[in-house]
Design a protein that fits this description.
Mean pLDDT: 88
CATH architecture of the largest domain: Beta Barrel
Number of domains: 2
Distance between the termini: 48 Å
Helix content: under 10%
CATH class of the largest domain: Mainly Beta
Length: 169
């Protein structure tokens, strides 16, 4: 399965306790749902893990992962992102998108002029921001991912229509 067929759903924040549990940061809207998407894969697809929720912990979830039995093994996974097969994830309503689906989409203004390509989606707590690289990759445009600024997302055509605010000096 290619990385396009998987979506990042969490990351290992480190060991929890001494018996191989890990502290897992879930990127799911309901953090505990991450266990339903197992097996979870490393980004390179070389390792997979079954996941069992043990308890909520500060900054994430305490989980047991298959093949991880010691604190040292858990510590060695700190920072590893975990990926779920796309077909295990829930279907989203028409006005919601997985960040991975937006990466690589062409962005046009309302007049049809190419603004660039989405390279990243950032969430700093106040709403998502699209990071758009302009043609030639010489500059970056940051667009709030709101209906007012991004009225159209067409995954089939692989394009976004944006109405960016006027630049002020």
């Amino acid at each position: 399965m290619s990385s396009k067929d998987r979506t990042c759903v969490g990351a290992i924040a480190g060991a929890f306790g001494v018996k191989g549990e890990v502290r897992l940061k879930s990127f799911c809207s309901v953090p505990e749902d991450i266990v339903h998407y197992a097996p979870l894969w490393t980004e390179d697809g070389k390792r997979s893990f079954g996941v069992t929720l043990t308890r909520p912990v500060t900054g994430g979830l305490g989980v047991r992962m298959t093949g991880i039995a010691t604190k040292e093994e858990a510590d060695a996974l700190k920072g590893v992102t975990l990926w779920a097969d796309r077909d295990k994830l829930p279907r989203l309503p028409d006005d919601e998108f997985y960040h991975a689906d937006l990466i690589g989409l062409a962005v046009y203004d309302t007049g049809g002029v190419l603004l660039g390509e989405v390279r990243a989606v950032h969430d700093h707590g106040a709403g998502d921001i699209l990071e758009v690289y302009t043609p030639g990759g010489k500059s970056t445009l940051l667009l709030p991912f709101t209906r007012a600024i991004v009225p159209t997302v067409d995954l089939t055509a692989r394009r976004i229509i944006a109405d960016p605010p006027e630049a002020t000096e």
